[in-house]
Amino acid sequence: MDDPTQGVVKINTDGASSGNPGEAGIGGLLRNSDGMWMVGFVQRIGFATALVAELWAMEQGLKLAWERGFRSVLGSPLQHDFLEFKSAFAMKYADFTVKFP
Predict the structure, then answer these.
(1) Domain count, the chain
(2) What is the pTM of this model?
(3) Residue 20 sits in a domain of what CATH number?
(4) 29-51 tens-digit pLDDT
(5) Integer Cα distance of 33 and 53 in angstroms
(6) How buried is residue 41: exposed, middle or buried, by Cβ count under 10 Å (0-12/13-18/19+)?
């Protein structure tokens, strides 16, 4: 039987601001189906709220996965924010699927 996670990438992201709003930054990483680190990112995004930073980080993580050819991802523990963002993101990337363990 095939492993259902083959070809699926796990995205972990975080965004934060110093103050709300305030100077903000994001970071994240992609892991393969074995949990091994594939690629990561970190970026200062300027002045933003904590929620904007979280959503920006998720967008960057999804973009990174998309650019690397992944069309199916496992989402981070921020499921509520992730699902909110996914609906907006899906308008641009209609073939993307998001699964939660």
Answers:
(1) 1
(2) 0.72
(3) 3.30.420.10
(4) 999 888 899 999 999 999 998 88
(5) 26
(6) middle
